[in-house]
Write a structure and sequence with these properties.
The structure is a homohexamer of 312-residue chains.
Chain A (H helix, E strand, L loop, with lengths): L12 E15 L5 E9 L2 E7 L4 H6 L5 E11 L2 E11 L19 H14 L3 H13 L1 H4 L15 H19 L5 H11 L3 H4 L10 H5 L1 H17 L4 H11 L16 H24 L24
Parallel strand pairs in A: 3-5
Antiparallel strand pairs in A: 1-2, 1-4, 2-3, 4-5
Helix pairs in contact in A: 2-5, 2-6, 3-6, 3-9, 5-6, 5-11, 6-10, 6-11, 9-10
Amino acid sequence: MQKGIIHYGIGDSIDTYMYIKSSTKAVASNGKPFLTLILSDKTGEIEAKLWDVSEDDEKSFASEKAVKIMGEIQNYRGRSQLKIRNIRLTTDLDAINISDLIQTAPIGQEEMMGKITQYIFEMRNPNIQRITRHLLKKYQSEFITFPAATKNHHEFLSGLAYHVVSMLDLAKAIAGLYPKLNKDLLYAGVILHDLGKVMELSGPVSTVYTVEGNLLGHITIMVSEISKAADELGIDGEEIMILKHLVLSHHGKAEWGSPKPPLVMEAEVLHYIDNIDAKINMMDRALERVKPGEFTERVFALENRSFYKPQL
Amino acid sequence: MQKGIIHYGIGDSIDTYMYIKSSTKAVASNGKPFLTLILSDKTGEIEAKLWDVSEDDEKSFASEKAVKIMGEIQNYRGRSQLKIRNIRLTTDLDAINISDLIQTAPIGQEEMMGKITQYIFEMRNPNIQRITRHLLKKYQSEFITFPAATKNHHEFLSGLAYHVVSMLDLAKAIAGLYPKLNKDLLYAGVILHDLGKVMELSGPVSTVYTVEGNLLGHITIMVSEISKAADELGIDGEEIMILKHLVLSHHGKAEWGSPKPPLVMEAEVLHYIDNIDAKINMMDRALERVKPGEFTERVFALENRSFYKPQL
Amino acid sequence: MQKGIIHYGIGDSIDTYMYIKSSTKAVASNGKPFLTLILSDKTGEIEAKLWDVSEDDEKSFASEKAVKIMGEIQNYRGRSQLKIRNIRLTTDLDAINISDLIQTAPIGQEEMMGKITQYIFEMRNPNIQRITRHLLKKYQSEFITFPAATKNHHEFLSGLAYHVVSMLDLAKAIAGLYPKLNKDLLYAGVILHDLGKVMELSGPVSTVYTVEGNLLGHITIMVSEISKAADELGIDGEEIMILKHLVLSHHGKAEWGSPKPPLVMEAEVLHYIDNIDAKINMMDRALERVKPGEFTERVFALENRSFYKPQL
Amino acid sequence: MQKGIIHYGIGDSIDTYMYIKSSTKAVASNGKPFLTLILSDKTGEIEAKLWDVSEDDEKSFASEKAVKIMGEIQNYRGRSQLKIRNIRLTTDLDAINISDLIQTAPIGQEEMMGKITQYIFEMRNPNIQRITRHLLKKYQSEFITFPAATKNHHEFLSGLAYHVVSMLDLAKAIAGLYPKLNKDLLYAGVILHDLGKVMELSGPVSTVYTVEGNLLGHITIMVSEISKAADELGIDGEEIMILKHLVLSHHGKAEWGSPKPPLVMEAEVLHYIDNIDAKINMMDRALERVKPGEFTERVFALENRSFYKPQL
Amino acid sequence: MQKGIIHYGIGDSIDTYMYIKSSTKAVASNGKPFLTLILSDKTGEIEAKLWDVSEDDEKSFASEKAVKIMGEIQNYRGRSQLKIRNIRLTTDLDAINISDLIQTAPIGQEEMMGKITQYIFEMRNPNIQRITRHLLKKYQSEFITFPAATKNHHEFLSGLAYHVVSMLDLAKAIAGLYPKLNKDLLYAGVILHDLGKVMELSGPVSTVYTVEGNLLGHITIMVSEISKAADELGIDGEEIMILKHLVLSHHGKAEWGSPKPPLVMEAEVLHYIDNIDAKINMMDRALERVKPGEFTERVFALENRSFYKPQL
Amino acid sequence: MQKGIIHYGIGDSIDTYMYIKSSTKAVASNGKPFLTLILSDKTGEIEAKLWDVSEDDEKSFASEKAVKIMGEIQNYRGRSQLKIRNIRLTTDLDAINISDLIQTAPIGQEEMMGKITQYIFEMRNPNIQRITRHLLKKYQSEFITFPAATKNHHEFLSGLAYHVVSMLDLAKAIAGLYPKLNKDLLYAGVILHDLGKVMELSGPVSTVYTVEGNLLGHITIMVSEISKAADELGIDGEEIMILKHLVLSHHGKAEWGSPKPPLVMEAEVLHYIDNIDAKINMMDRALERVKPGEFTERVFALENRSFYKPQL
């Protein structure tokens, strides 16, 4: 039986299937070419070096391939590195599906779409509901597979949709406790806030920023999309301006990329919900890798803190 | 029938009972003494000047007295000020209870204690439960009447307990969605995090900082109290250290008064919950004073933002 | 012959025509209503109090009226204030045009439009040219009368157009010295960068922020407008993305309201040009009010500096 | 005759006794295990690699052992590294005492305790005197051997006590010049300010942070200890609060770990004294390693400055 | 017998001699001119209004005059203000010397010059000694009367010399404890560090910044003076560069006005000494005005802190 | 035909002449010495390792030598590195001039001096003209060969003069558009602002900071030089103070090394001009290395941004 890569420690041997997230060629000090591979399975990833590669090796062990691999985990400059003993591409006989090797959301895509559809159904303001449904439908195929980010949090297949579903549940719980909050705005804000990432990022795997993503960013892209959707649907009320503001301000502060801070209560709460779900996701994954009584590795996006796992 | 002071505008006449929150003597440009009164009712407060006062007036219209007052609301340098036509102390005939004039929590003290007791009852770790119960009992009488702060949020009678009850409900909702969170730590953290305020602040009304509050602060005071409680109860496990850490780190960052940032997941979440409840309270009260389509006054503790109330 | 208000000092008498920029009612310590007037002419503005006003006075001396006024300049708490001796509304007999009392650009509207049209004419890239012409035409009537801001710089009638014209000349000079700069992008960036202000601000005089201006801001508004224009004109090339980026990044840094910093050389240069023209305008106007050998008043938007006027 | 390690340069051969401060195993690119040793003597430390180690080597050359070593100093990526020619554990025949290889305070432990005892003896306020004596006695054995920090300043055996003794002398000198300073508070503040480090740190050598040190910190630990001492001694006056405040505020600012800034004159001066002694210690040690006319290495804790040693 | 102005409280009557530090004319709401006087004696200062003044009054009660005054201390907007009952210029009969009414250093000018001369005498490096003596002599008459600043600390007659004398004593004490410090550099640094203030400031009383002070500052002025002195004395060694660096870096950080941070140990220590003497002076004077158990007014230059005076 | 080093990519072979900017010896893991060479030609530079060097090699391949070199460009840890196949010193037969291998200003030294002389000639104020001419003449030989900095911008032979010439042209263009600017001050400010670099830096090639440069900096050095020049020329007017202020404030802010911010309009504009020319130079050179549609490497001195080269 197979445990995931994050559960192996220095000195352990592995013999398993993995996915090549990236493969980069360089030349060693002996003048021979080698590949630096980032290998992943459902639980995490590890770096490996493949020495003295031929041109064939280079083509075979390229990014987005599945491989059968044997080797040991070693300490290299304080980080784990996999020393490869044996590596080959998988064949049909291995009966391995790439989706088995890629980290993905813990809920299925259909179940997630079902939940989101239900939240849209619960909206009472028809304009908010129509805009949200229109935009989700327009980008649904990307939305349901893209990660929420290239690193830090929810950086896995369907991470974006999973982040949205978790946030919707959180929005519902908070709105239940503070009844003055407008649920329609909160739900629409959650669904649309990161939808621009389907244009900011390159795709569901091996994800990088697009040129448009670099020059404009998902916030600005999405605000223009809301304008366009409103024009197409012939909707012209304050809802449009508030929805744009929700998307625009969801990073909370100018220095975090929101040219306007939240100036509507639901925008402020949307920022909290986004923050909580992203950060619990990060802490959760860092803590998963350590035992009670230990500290995690430093988490850059959490002010470089190292978290303690109590022994309670 | 009586509407509250925050619902009156410039030019309105009032004829009502109010409470003197503070009374300060000064000398006018004509050389005669006058009093600056801060008058409140359940909804808010207003400044008033009482001109040409005698020594008797000064004694009568002192802080923490209830008065019957007539006058008009005027614009004074951009702020509302009550121009007093007539003022007198209340008598038994007025049948006015001071508690009717003081802003207080929207839930009764007994109901709040009942809810908190229930949360303590639900704790599974006996050490956490005993420490929490011990400390709450020790300071219960102050806890149930003190405000949560002298200004900004929950700055009213029983504001501290009300803030704790809201946070407990929020903690329960969030822990329901992220099952790795330890509820015992979250609930104990919520109940203890601001309990040191019963020593940092002077009392339930006309609240100011004590010398100890200024020199040590509620966080440090409470951490020492947890040490003491653990000694008295003979408890000596990791729970004590974690509870101290929860209290210590709940302001989130060194520059906000926490010498250590949250380094335990529940500590981080406690900081979020505290923040959300305090800030929604602030926004709520600012928005209550304006009509849809208007912006609130600037809220200093929310980065001086002015919030918009949508017309949806 | 008439010199402007900024050239009068403490103790001087005035007898002139002025424009009421704003009129606010309040109640004096004697219980009687009075008006605080902000009066302007082409050179600047001054505060005045009109005491013991009747309801008629209040209606007469309202905002956006022209008046004939006599009085003296006095020192009130360190600032100049006009003590009114006599005030009346102007009549046809005065032969005073409101435009004679309002600060405005030093070049005529037609001349400015002529210069801008010429710059658009010089563009070589037809897509950039068409987008720029389309958007300028769409908002030309507001563009030619609006100020560039509510305060700080170019806060006068046609200030926006004047700022654009000055920036175009500066762009041309700089592009002449650094030939790798793309003039089309620079000129289009200059013309479009602040065009969203026609929606962010309320109008050419007594200018305040609109709700949309507060919640979205002129940068975001304009980026959506460029999207829309491109759709309407059927243009779909990299030009659109770069034009959006120019507008988006022209404030230079996230904390100054640009969610993306300039990432294209012309965007960086556009930011410099905007900055130089705005700041020279501010210094110029502050220095105009002092004599050689003196320091100006502190200029808030220039890091609160007080500038020295050399005696050379 | 033997000069210390910091006096050797690139290219020098050494043949000397050293102490293994730490020993970390890793795997080389040839697949064989090697050890990274941090070796020290009284003057400083150097890194060395021990290649192709056996399991026996690994056990022998572990942390906190003394060794006889021969080799050369080499330049490795800009830093000095010792290339080992020969290494063996010391035996009784070497007549080497570990304390001869460990950096330690320049004054003996007894002399230091004598000086501190004298300062306590000079205190006039019996409460301050009793608290200070009680706490020092309680933790004396750790206090006299611990370093003052894991790096930056006084990071050697008995560094904590040496830092305290230097600060006491400095406190006496300053109090002599500014007679309004209360010497009792200054002396007690100096003695107690870092005493919590005996719980924050793991021990006198190979020092790391304890879990309690990470989650609570020496400041908070010590404030609780003062509470406890006061309870045990039955002391209950303002002295207790001021002593806690001195400890609490000695880092000077919230962002440096003091939840309250100094609000008592002696607390402010304690912060200066701590700062001066720590920083002169750091500069001194950096300057010791260079010749007149040279700059030191960058000192991270002194804003990364590189100091010049004048040729005067 | 006469106590000083800082020892009077709200409601007290005074009948004493005072010095007019500044006198500013303005017009009251009744249209009549009045003077705002800042009155001082040796202990401090107070504001007073002189109403309905004639042109003669204006000339009489001008800045830098001594007056006999009667009145009461009142609370005006939270600050003390003197209500004048009677005021007249002093005559020969009053036998009052202006120096009796001006705050000045607690040590005489001759004694201060004697101490400084002794410190120069103790220097061993003849170049440092000659430069220091030359520059002190050149500006001695201003040095001995100027304040050290226009506000914040040592802002009184001979404050600059007094600050230097205190710092010299402190330098001697610290150099005694850390023997690696070069006393010549420390003493010369102390004597020269603020000597440029004799050109930066306008004079010993009613002190303001000169134009040169505003545009260049005392640090830059003094560095050029050291260059000039070295040329004149024909000295050309490393001493000159180090002395310039000591002056240049004594504010400690670029953002505090030192274009280079201290990069020589004595420069760093000079910065500490300057800081300690200035800040103890500020705290001392704030604490002098309150009773044990009270907090001082907020001290702006000490991060706006309010200090507590213990009851010990 | 020869293209420059920046135009070669990973995998390319080169066979060309290059200049050794620096040569550093170290010991490889096999115990043998090797050299790290920084090689340059007119277009840029590249790192190379020369393995197993003899003492002769070390002497031959020292800094500031010209070599004939063959090898391939490889990827080493993400950066380009030249793998040396063959290297030899150039001989007379190669007919290679070192100046052909060193990056230098695109305009000749004489042409640059001619332009600057013309600008000085155009000055109308004789004092400004004489000071400027005097100082330029005094340091002309260094001025015309030094770089403007050791890295970031204009870090090539004659870079300082080229930066000044570009800034003069820019100053002229801007002064033409804003006629209130004093051209004499602008031109003199441009010519003098960085002239202190001839003492701050070590020389025209292999440039490092001098001790004086580290301890005083070019700004302070130049201000003293202006003092001295004024003394020597017997000039004593406000011009001197303003010229010093222009040099002093040209970094714009205290934290950027200007102890006074610009307080004269021409000083502010000088800061803009310096900034624009330096930053366009940096962007230009980064963009030169990439193709349209690509992003540049991150440019540290431009807030670590990576710039996009449009495909227009």
